[in-house]
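EI: anyone free to look at a 132-residue chain?
SC: sure, send it
EI:
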Amino acid sequence: MSEDGLVTIASRHTVSETLDRLERALKTKDITVFARIDHAAGAASVAMPLRPTELLIFGSPRGGTPLMQSNQTAGIDLPLKVLGWQDAGGQIWLTYSDPSWLARRHQLGSGTDANVGTLKLLLETLTRAAAE
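SC: here you go
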């Protein structure tokens, strides 16, 4: 499902396991994982409930730099991020920003089409594999 530039797919695993699987796949592709943020743990630290919600932040200068060379504002959406979350019914989801939407948002030149296509395919392939 896609909405407002977001792509969301269902996962068969827990949030943590889904992001573990994604993180391993990223590392095999030599993509740097910059951070993993456990929003539910943050909420718990201030005695507030939140269903499992984790954010994985990752990227590569080879993929992101050409986008920022076209328009530096793309840097607000880079590095890439994938959110793993559990809905009220217990279903686990992965959500990320569609690179094509990011290209439109930042009015990236046609010279970045190949990079955007590569990022789109990478995100689709790796998130689906992590969710299966």
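EI: The two ends are 16 Å apart (CA to CA).
SC: 👍
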